[in-house]
Amino acid sequence: MKETSYHHRLIARITIEAKSPLAVGTGNKSFLTDAPVTTDVNGLPYIPGTALTGILRHALHINKETDSVFGFQNGEKGHGSEIVFTDAVMIGKDGTPIDGLVSADLLQDSFYQHYLEMPIRQHVKINERGTAQDGAKFDNQVVFKGTRFLFEIELCYDGDEKKKELFEDALRQLRNESLRIGSGTRNGYGELEVTSCKKRELDLTRPADLEDYLQMSSKLTGKRPAMEDFEERADIKDWDKYELDLTPDNFFLFGSGMGDAEADMTPVTEAIVKWDKPDGPYFTDLKILIPASSVKGALAHRTAYHYNKLKGLFAGDPDAKAGDENPAVKAIFGTSNGKIRRGHLLISDVFEEIKDSPKYYKIVNHVSIDRFTGGSIDGALFTEKVNYRNDHSFTLNILVEKDEEITDEYREAFELALKDICHRMLPLGGGVNRGNGIFKGAVKRNGIELWKKKKKEDTRAGCGTAIKTSHILSVQTKNGRSLLMITRTRSS
Predict the structure, then answer these.
(1) pTM (two decimals)
(2) Where are the alpha helices (DSSP H) in 369-456?
(3) Which of 208, 306, 345, 484 is deepest in the core (most CB within 10 A)?
């Protein structure tokens, strides 16, 4: 038996917060959703240690010199892992981790009751004709934004400084803004924020350190040696950061797929967890949700349009590709056709406050008119509840990796799509052909504004009132049909 000389231990205790909803799935389906999240024996969410190990191993770009730390197997050659990850367990209402079975009475608390019915997100893939693609409707469960977890990492090593540096680099990567965990990381899920990271090195040849190590409990709630803060972070030099400061012109609607007592179509909303009160975490009231997946879909379609335009490819040309087949979309957003590959783009959900005032909600009635009778068509009367926040702006953050696959031409097409959003030419959400989802704003890349739109208004005189003209966008489809989109007009 080979004798080891692992007389040193590096231990880190990390608390992370879900900066965006998490979707660390079980790999199975349930009665309620296509993709439930992992839960412990109490029915509360947790993050398996294998998921944490995988994302950090990938982030560190493990090579032959350092793969022994995480372990490897190559034919008959192999080496066990020298680094150990615990599961990341949820931090409870009292600020302590929930490690193991808890009493049924504790779970009756309203805070924990929220986790027994976590949000389910609806998804559908839209093709270039603006309709749902066959077989592309699915849903998944997510863990609330703001949920906190605690886990530990332990490295057994022989005092090698290279392995110590690798361990500390892993802790730095946890603070990397581009780090994501779970599924749907390219659709807004899995963004983490480290709220606490403490580290301690133990030399087991010293009696005091050995005693501290032996007194450590196997439970995360048990005794731990004194630790020091570790606040270093890795930068995001391999990514370009785009910030879109957007203000809605009028109404916008990211639909929930359901109605309520007031309308047939309602906006999607979710509660989040906050920790800004001294008496512990709490759930906020429902917030307006702007799903990253909705924004990503619109951006992908418009990126394909601009790439084809830059290449001189127009409707009817066999080389004018749309969707996953478009080279720019495939490189930036990834593809699910043929060889599945994830994209080089990260985008985050946006949560906005709701206020119970007509200023923030509007019930809009719709009816389809029979052209012969002038009356309404049976079954064609419906109402939608839309958001109205033209006095408030929000920031949408997007990261794009600096990868050799993304050429200057692909990036130009993508940035032109961002420009369209900010210049009212690319609406977002539902009901865009009814005037919803028009935004104005500015785009910054790594802190520098890309374009500054000149203020220019066309007015028509009439009854002493200046009328701002509508924005009109006409798109010619393959079959020659013209699609017309008109935004709402406003008088001043």
Answers:
(1) 0.85
(2) 408-422
(3) 345
